[in-house]
Amino acid sequence: MDCLFCKIIDGEIPSTKVYEDEYVYAFKDIAPIAPMHILIIPKAHIASANDINAENSSLVAKVFEAAGKIAKEQGCESYRIINNCGDDAGQTVKHLHFHLLGGVKMGWRPESLGRTE
Question: Which of 1, 17, 70, 109 is most buried, taking the most CB atoms under 10 A from its CB?
């Protein structure tokens, strides 16, 4: 399989690993947008959130179980978890992944979605 994240999990491409267990791999984003910007991915290849089903949905629970542990280890009590699903949403790697962001106060900016209210 020609998947960037599968190659990272397999050690073919280097990463700055911050967490790993039987089901999940997490590493620092190479282009962080927050002081803490970590990608959390299931080790099993799932292309996107559209491909979550009854057989693999337990892996998403493992991702969220790991997120709290990782944030605590990184010293963040408040954080945001983001998933981009599909090209128009900004998903550039077709392997389900979640961005764990923290270390800065975040807010809601409607203009970021083209809204002005």
Answer: 70
